[in-house]
Structure prediction request, 173 residues.
Amino acid sequence: MQVLQLFVSFFKIGLFSFGGGYAMLPLIQREIISLHNWLTMDQFIDVVAISQITPGPVGINAATFVGYKVAGFSGSSLATIGVVLPSVIVVLILTKLFLKYRDLTPVRAMFRGIRPAVVSLILAATVMIIPSSITDAIGIVIAIATFLLVKYLKLDPILSLVLAAATGIIIYH
Prediction:
């Protein structure tokens, strides 16, 4: 039964998440923490952090991790299929429709409306995890330094995570 719940939960997450991994964080948090208590907030933040240093999208990594924690390999597999399946279906349908209707004014207007909403979802996810992720002055410094290095010096995001991890080992160990 939990395997079916995992599939349905992650199918909903995949179906209603527009804008990629960060935009789906509020939905993931609601399903896995608030509704089902599959993870704690600290574990959820760990999933987000692990997703940044492992290949693959946040939603897929979260589905795989949560599914495995809740129901082992079968849970991991079905949660991952659940989060991916809506995208596959929607992309196949939308590609056909978009190629046919992309020059219509309502289609262009729809995308102009969706873009700011996606930015807001990403911002909401950021605000949601800040209290549990940045817990002291050193965390604030690491966050600001990482932002500045990536934004202005164009440091590779993966390298910035490696540097932050090394800093954490040095300072917090």
